[in-house]
Amino acid sequence: MTELFGLEKKIANAWAQQFSSKKIERYEVNAQASLPRRGKSVSTLDLRKSLSSTSLVLLGDDRLNPFHQKEAISCLGRWCGKQKTVFLTDRFPQKTKKSIQSFLKNQTTYSVLADEFNIQAPRPFSPEAGVEVLFNWIKKKKLSFHLVSSEGVSLVRRDRSLAQEAARYLKRGWKVVLWTGSLRLASVHIPRFLDSQDVAYVSLLFGVSQIRWTSNDVGRWARSRENEFVYVGGSPLLSLELRRAWENRSTNLVLPEHVEAFFYKCIQKIQKKIGSQRSFPKAKILNPYELNTLSFLRDARVKPNIRKFLLQRVLSNECAVVPSNRTVLLSTLEEGHIAEEAAHYMRLVNVSTDGFSPLRTALEEAFAFLGSRWIDPGRPVPETTAPFATSWEEVHEAGYRLGAKLHDVWRNSKKGRDRIRDAWNQRLRSESDVCRLWEDLEEKM
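Above: the chain sequence. Below: its structure as tokens.
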């Protein structure tokens, strides 16, 4: 298990470097340094016993990861009881306060509130979908909601204000849930102001990966200090993927446990488009959010060259199809990406790709991108963000552009749809066949 967690850490570090679009602030460095590194596995029952002895719960999560919010409210469960309870946070601007109260009073819908928060179209599984989960829980439990001002205030003052507000409610006999980011629950931030006032609390931390990576088991929770619990049950790669999706404004995501089913659903839909009844051998579907995929990448029974290739792809957050091994790697959870690999698998499962020319590669990318557009019509044409595109990137982009063109033809012309079906089903026996088909698609469509 330690070896698998070591591989997960390696992937996480690689993704973090790729996805980081902002400068790391000094407070983040200091907070990371003071976060717990080790903990002892505990049961959810032990956690709930500790919660029952406190009136203040510090909830620190990754706001983008809805699993954090769902796990948090399942743990809090009956903790509120009949005692007055307030939900305290400074994660939203003060101008949203009126809309929040309207939602909690059933006077408006969450979609209106999401617009106020500048959250992308709410879906059950998408970045920030857990915010809706939390607000529905607050409404169901009939908790009070207190939004502390954060505009134009230093982080130290914000930390102190939250701690002071929590202490005031406690003195009035209330229970308090203080919701913020996990870094702000590091000992150098909010807890130090509570400790200085001798305020008792229990912290629930999400997104602290180091404890998971130093563990020898896969429980759900670990106790790092007497009053501090860290969630270790979910892959930290999921939070990174959600951040990538959030930065790219992507909301069409598939739950990790549904990836394989969605892959085959894509194949069925593409088959209907091209009028094919052909059956396909079952593929080995891998995604790095599950430990069995990490086991596969360390399995000595798998050919070393295949393991090496797949590891390189997953470290780059890329998908891949290995026809010879009937293996599909789905590193991202976007519907369009999964559909693209499904189209690749359909076309290449019984074809050797070792001798593919750049033109054949571009042609396959065109058909695969067309397949992805059938599943996700709004999928944008991928473009490299590198200052200088490599020949590999240029070949793929040429294929994507042709695929987008084919999709436009498909939508607007019955004659064009018939020709695209014929092109898809052509057998390409030689490079001259590839050249002829490419020219026909480029010039006559």
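Residues 253 and 334 are 4 Å apart (CA to CA).
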